[in-house]
């Protein structure tokens, strides 16, 4: 995103500090104060976590999720949650943030973070978030940035060296190889009844299921790789290091103190203190390391990795030369052995490929192909073979990947049998194909292949979660028996409600969790409201909306008693996001793109209409109404917004389906025990009970006049007719009410008119 120089003057803030300072949380909240925004995050799993958080606040229709393997792109997204590598360069936004910016010092990925630091800006505001160690680099490369150091919100302290049996509940045990993770998880299962497992190789769906298992208290322990060090938020009181060395893709080495701190800092959330320990037979940490971690003091970064972003595609030689261009600033270190440059060198030496790269278009295409990640961690020759096949097809006469070729590869991955390692390997293959299928210009019917790849990943995720639970959670524990009972009960519910196949040996965890995760991943069209305002899907009531911050942001109570805590937590998050979309869809008439051009007075009216779910009293907006420009009145009118003498209302929000949603939102805000009427398509008026106040009736679209709630368009019609002399009897005939009700309505509207005439006011 190399923005015009005029945009580079936007406010730049660098928030630096240790873990648990709330940097990412503040950045998300700040982004939501802007009309548009984008945040780049270091992990796919963290991007999904932040996406879930943002969509729960503003709805999925307003948020895009963009990673190498996953793209959720609504029609008109306002916010983009991305992995740093996948941040779209063609989107200009008001607010832009990059998290974990100190990863500019990472040997493989650092140049991407450095590129964002040097050239990517929001139109109005830019934030960089990272560790204290990056401060000298920030001061040198971005001298205009305002640097703010944030202290940790809780204390992190050393807990000594402990044995496995001495680990307290809510502990995350950290290891750096899959085999070691399995070994520790087996030992915790034998001693403590079970553990969740979190690794970077898990899909977001499988990882969320495992985290929910831990977060809900179904298990008290977690075994994880250092993936948890990148901002993943879990309620961890203690981090136990089972290893202090890791293979970084090049060599086996000791972790640096700053790396240990990044992981240890997951202990303690918000103002809850945390501790870190080593797990015997490891020795205790050296006193100097303990002091560094407790005091958050580490050597500063003196350089970051860099690669030229202005690439020359005229020829393979020109591309290689531009990639090898040296930086001019001493703190920038050239990346010389990245995975994609190795792929380029290898493929450029292939005579057939070199022959096809005589045009700049094909050189650029080859470079795109070289950036397909090797999620599978194959032997290099195998990965190069795949890249070669992709390029030769794309540079051929059809310029597309062959359907049968892709289908054959995907078909081999549809098998759900096998152990955990087998499923993880298939999932890694799927990640590669998901990345490929999201290059829509490379395929015919790309969407169909994307959906197929996503379904395969979902199915593998469900099977993997089931295998993890079977292997690492002791079915003999009390909580596991409770889960088994819940699954047995739910099996019959599934049989009747959603047609799940639960014959045979009884329902596996996949029957229940697969259905729940299917709902969690489903589009909004799968959910709906029944006549009672409850949330339903697949013919089954899932929950109900409850009072939230305001009518537009209800909370959700899941009412499926059959669910375990983990499944309940996942479903509750999804339903909250759906309610936000429900509210945003309801108010879409007030957010027509043409209305973005109106002036301040019209925007003030629109704000009042939003707060009233589409209805407001004219008397409460007199100042704005007097100042609205004629052109803005026309724009409002074309969007169906009526500026009446007594009532302001959005006509589309008086349709039956909109009234049902308004009633459900009002009911949630009032709370249980107070019944909100649900107006039918022919309900022109109703007499509200004492429990339902005038503001609620107005939010329903029925302003109260003379103790009678009248639909907004009818109220405005009658106001004009009564001003012209209409009496009670014609009013009664139109509304279908008795004479007394009609007389109350006439008296109320006539009284308002007399007051207005007496004061000499008119709108």
Q: Could you walk me through the main structural features you see in this protein, from its secondary elements to its overall organization?
A:
Helices cover 44% and strands 14% of the residues. It has 763 residues and is α/β, with parallel strands linked by helices. It has five domains: 5-149, P-loop containing nucleotide triphosphate hydrolases (Rossmann fold); 156-295, Rossmann fold (3-Layer(aba) Sandwich), CATH 3.40.50; 314-399, no CATH class; 475-586, no CATH class; 592-759, no CATH class. An eight-stranded mixed beta sheet has the order 4-3-5-2-6-7-1-8, sandwiched between helices. It has a six-stranded parallel beta sheet with strand order 9-16-13-10-12-11, sandwiched between helices. Strands 19-20-21-22 form a four-stranded antiparallel beta sheet. Helix 12 runs antiparallel to helix 13 (380-394) and helix 26 packs across helix 27 (739-759). The chain starts with 10 loop residues before the first strand and ends with a helix. Residues 1-7, 478-510 and 753-763 have low confidence and may be disordered.
- Rg over CA atoms: 30 Å
> How many alpha or pi helices?
27
Q: What is the number of domains?
A: 5
Strand order across the largest sheet:
4-3-5-2-6-7-1-8
Low-confidence stretches: 1-7, 478-510, 753-763
Q: In total, how many beta strands?
A: 28
Helix percent reads 40-55%
Strand content: 5-15%
Largest pleated sheet: 8 strands, mixed
Beginning-to-end CA distance, first to last residue: 48 Å
Q: Name the overall outline.
A: globular
How does the helix and strand content classify structurally? alpha/beta
Give the oligomer, counting copies of the same chain as homo and different chains as hetero: single chain
Mean pLDDT: 86
């Amino acid at each position: 995103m190399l923005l015009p120089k005029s945009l580079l003057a936007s406010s730049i803030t660098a928030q630096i500090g240790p873990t648990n300072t709330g940097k990412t949380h503040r950045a998300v909240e700040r982004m939501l104060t802007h009309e548009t925004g984008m945040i780049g995050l270091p992990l796919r799993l963290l991007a999904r976590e932040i996406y879930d958080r943002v969509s729960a606040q503003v709805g999925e229709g307003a948020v895009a999720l963009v990673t190498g393997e996953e793209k959720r792109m609504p029609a008109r997204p306002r916010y983009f949650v991305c992995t740093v590598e996948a941040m779209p360069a063609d989107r200009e936004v008001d607010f832009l943030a990059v998290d974990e910016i100190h990863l500019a010092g990472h040997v493989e990925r650092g140049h991407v973070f450095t590129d964002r630091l040097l050239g990517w800006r929001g139109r109005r505001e830019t934030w960089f978030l990272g560790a204290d160690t990056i401060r000298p680099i920030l001061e040198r490369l971005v001298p205009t940035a305002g640097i703010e150091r944030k202290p940790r919100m809780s204390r992190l302290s050393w807990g000594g060296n402990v044995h496995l049996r001495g680990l307290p509940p809510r502990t995350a045990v950290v290891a750096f190889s899959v085999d070691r993770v399995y070994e520790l998880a087996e030992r915790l299962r034998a001693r403590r009844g079970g553990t969740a497992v979190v690794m970077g190789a898990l899909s977001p769906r499988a990882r969320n299921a495992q985290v929910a298992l831990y977060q809900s208290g179904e298990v008290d322990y977690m075994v994880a790789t250092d993936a948890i060090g990148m901002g993943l938020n879990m309620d961890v009181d203690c981090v136990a290091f089972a290893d202090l060395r890791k293979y970084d893709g090049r060599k086996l080495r000791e972790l640096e103190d700053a790396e240990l701190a990044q992981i240890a800092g997951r202990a303690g959330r918000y103002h809850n203190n945390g501790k870190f320990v080593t797990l015997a037979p490891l020795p205790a940490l050296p006193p100097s390391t303990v002091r560094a971690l407790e005091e958050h003091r580490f050597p500063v970064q003196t350089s970051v990795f860099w690669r030229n972003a202005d690439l020359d595609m005229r020829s393979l030689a020109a591309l290689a030369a531009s990639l090898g261009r040296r930086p001019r600033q001493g703190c920038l270190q050239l990346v010389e052995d990245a995975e994609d440059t190795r792929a380029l060198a290898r493929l450029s030496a292939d005579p057939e490929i070199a022959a096809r790269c005589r045009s700049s278009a094909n050189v650029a295409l080859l470079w795109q192909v070289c950036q397909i990640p090797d999620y599978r961690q194959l032997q290099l020759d195998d990965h190069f073979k795949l890249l070669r096949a992709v390029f030769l097809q794309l540079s051929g006469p059809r310029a597309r990947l062959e359907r049968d070729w892709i289908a054959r590869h995907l078909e081999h991955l549809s098998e759900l049998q096998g152990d955990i390692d087998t499923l993880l390997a298939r999932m890694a293959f799927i990640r590669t194909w998901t990345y490929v299928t999201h290059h829509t210009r490379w395929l015919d019917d790309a969407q169909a292949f994307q959906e197929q790849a996503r379904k395969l990943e979902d199915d593998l995720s469900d099977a993997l979660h089931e295998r993890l639970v079977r292997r690492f959670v002791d079915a003999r524990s009390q909580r596991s028996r409770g889960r088994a009972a819940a699954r047995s009960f739910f099996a019959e519910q599934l049989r009747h409600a959603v047609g799940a196949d639960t014959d045979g040996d009884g329902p596996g965890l996949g029957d229940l969790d697969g259905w729940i995760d299917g709902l969690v991943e489903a589009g909004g069209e799968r959910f709906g409201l029944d006549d009672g305002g409850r949330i339903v899907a697949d013919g089954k009531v899932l929950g109900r909306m409850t009072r939230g911050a305001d009518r537009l942001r209800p909370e959700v109570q899941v009412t499926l008693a059959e669910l375990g805590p983990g499944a309940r937590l996942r479903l509750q998050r999804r339903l909250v996001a759906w309610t936000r979309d429900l509210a945003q869809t309801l108010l879409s008439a007030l957010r027509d793109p043409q209305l973005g051009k109106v002036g301040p007075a019209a925007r003030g009216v629109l704000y009042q209409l939003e707060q009233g779910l589409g209805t407001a009293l004219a008397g409460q907006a007199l100042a704005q109404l007097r100042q609205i420009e004629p052109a803005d009145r026309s724009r409002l009118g074309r969007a169906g917004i009526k500026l009446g003498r007594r009532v302001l209302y959005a006509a589309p929000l008086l349709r039956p389906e909109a009234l049902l949603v308004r009633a459900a939102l009002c009911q949630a805000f009032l709370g249980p025990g107070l019944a909100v009427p649900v107006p039918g398509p022919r309900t022109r008026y109703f007499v509200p009970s004492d429990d339902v106040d005038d503001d609620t009736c107005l939010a329903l679209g029925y302003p109260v006049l003379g103790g009678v709630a009248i639909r907004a368009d009818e109220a405005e019609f009658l106001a004009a007719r009564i001003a012209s002399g209409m009496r009670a009897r014609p009013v009664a005939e139109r509304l279908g009410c008795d004479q007394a009700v009609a007389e109350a309505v006439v008296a109320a509207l006539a009284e308002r008119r007399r007051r207005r005439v007496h004061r000499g006011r008119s709108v």
